[in-house]
Amino acid sequence: MAFIMLIQMKYMRYLMLQIVMCHIYCISFSQPLNFTKEIRLDNRSTILRNVVLEGDSLIVTGEIGRDSLQLTGFFIFKMDTAGNIGNIKYYRDPDLTDHALLDGINPITINSNGTLALSGHFLALDDAFFMVLNKSLDTIIYKSYINEYRSLVINCLAQYLNEYYLIGKAQTQNYDLDVFIMKVDSVGNRIWEKTYGLSNKDEFGVAFILDDGGLTIRVSKAHDPTPTIKNDSRYWAQFINIDTSGILQWMWEEEVTGDEGYGGAFVKYGTDYIYTTNYLGDEYSAGILQAAQLVRRDSAFNLVWRKVYGEPVSFSNYFGDMAMSRDSNLLLAGQILDDSGDFNWARVMKICPDGEVLCETRDTGYVLANGESLNRMEGIIESLTGSIYAVGYTNRSLFLFDGLILKVSPDGCIDTLCTTTSIEDNLRLLEQKIDAYPNPMQDELNIVLDESLPPDVSVSIYNTMGHLVFSDDIDGHKKTISVADWPVGLYVVQSVSKGSVVASIKVVKSSK
């Protein structure tokens, strides 16, 4: 029992450290770039889609423009942390009759033995394929799967218990799209395939996490309420959970209110789900993306918060991939239009789990002759040293793209405080200026501030969800508050003066 309590306290201390860091240091500033690289492979249009980490190296995948047979394929290369590109391998339809696409969010995974598994689809035949590559990026397993669907797109690849799940969407009847999932074994033999959806709605499987002994899949659901009106489809979020045999365990979908949008990446933070949406305004063709959103829901899918990050006037505000950083914050890649409407910036963001922006980087990429810049970032990852890498593309001319890689500094801090001392040192200084007892607390909590702090201070207390549970002024640097009705758990006490946190400490509410 003592060992279990020790583990729990260590986890609580770690979690609270993240919360304290988030509440104190969620400040928006430009994050410095270590480098920006534009890449054109084989003198063809080059689009970078995904990036994964292999030790200290990066593995980057993307789409390569038409070759001499007028076919599009994909590529994989390795890159070190200095931006040097190693071996490049090109892949296309072995029959040389179709476009081979490696698309979507995270269609690749690295196995424990260092091999690389990936899945994609052919554009014309709408068949799926699965591949395993060795460390030299040579193909050691290749399987293609003929299907009877009118169209098929593979968006992501999940690995679980040495088996793989190809996830995407299939056109099952007429113009109806359903979530498509195919399970294959370690060498690519098909075990089963299933679709999930309604005939009067379109469902796309866009992202996944391993969850509850199976897979939880983020679905983007669409409905066309007035078929006679062009491009008026509505999109909202749905989540489905399946076991390893493909049996649906549970499903949840949000109510269509007007705030929802086309789906993207998602992660699990503790027991909560955090996911991206791209709000669709007045549609044109595929839709005008008017606002990149981030949404957090608890384990019962109750809304914790929904926040919008920029509202441009054209189809240029978008979130691509999302990942968790090593300090438990959110990393996002995307794009945003600037106020002038000339630059479609490449965008990299680091956001606290409470939705506040920790830092943001924007880059113009290639500037066209007319003074405009068009960029889109797709994938994002953090290295072992904390550097952030985002991959995407910048527009050179009509139908010609260069791959774009941004390497962002791990600290990103430009204010004097962060450049002269570490965050851990600052936390210790803040804790030295406040005392709170008893700790653990049960019925009441006494707060005592250092006499060196200014007299015009207030106290704010947050729970582990980042919700404010108490706030009041402090007279005479002392305060006693009743906590008898508070839930058991961890809390952070902050003393604030003129909008700045001047002292902070962690406390625990225990059961009687």
Written description of the protein model:
- The chain is mainly beta and 512 residues long.
- It has a domain at 421-509: Macroglobulin (MG2) domain (Immunoglobulin-like).
- The protein has helices spanning 2-25, 416-420, 423-432, and strands spanning 33-39, 46-54, 57-64, 73-79, 85-91, 100-101, 108-110, 116-122, 128-133, 139-145, 152-160, 163-173, 176-184, 190-196, 202-211, 214-223, 234-242, 248-253, 262-269, 272-280, 289-297, 303-308, 318-324, 330-337, 343-351, 357-363, 373-382, 388-397, 400-408, 434-437, 444-449, 458-463, 468-473, 478-482, 489-497, 500-509.
- The strands form 8 sheets. Strands 1, 23, 24, 25, 26, 27, 28 and 29 form an 8-stranded mixed sheet that branches.
- Strand 4 (73-79) and strand 5 (85-91) form a beta hairpin.
- The protein starts with a helix and ends with a strand.
Distance between the termini: 17 Å
What is the strand content? Answer: over 45%
The CATH topology of the domain at 421-509 is what?
Immunoglobulin-like
Q: Kindly report the name of the CATH homologous superfamily of the domain at 421-509.
A: Macroglobulin (MG2) domain
Counted beta strands = 36
Please state the average pLDDT score: 81
CATH architecture of the domain at 421-509: Sandwich
Jot down its keywords.
mainly beta
Outline the secondary-structure elements.
Layout: H1 2-25, E1 33-39, E2 46-54, E3 57-64, E4 73-79, E5 85-91, E6 100-101, E7 108-110, E8 116-122, E9 128-133, E10 139-145, E11 152-160, E12 163-173, E13 176-184, E14 190-196, E15 202-211, E16 214-223, E17 234-242, E18 248-253, E19 262-269, E20 272-280, E21 289-297, E22 303-308, E23 318-324, E24 330-337, E25 343-351, E26 357-363, E27 373-382, E28 388-397, E29 400-408, H2 416-420, H3 423-432, E30 434-437, E31 444-449, E32 458-463, E33 468-473, E34 478-482, E35 489-497, E36 500-509
Parallel strand pairs: 25-27
Antiparallel strand pairs: 1-29, 2-3, 3-4, 4-5, 6-8, 7-8, 8-9, 9-10, 11-12, 12-13, 13-14, 15-16, 16-17, 17-18, 19-20, 20-21, 21-22, 23-24, 24-25, 25-26, 27-28, 28-29, 30-31, 31-34, 32-33, 32-35, 35-36
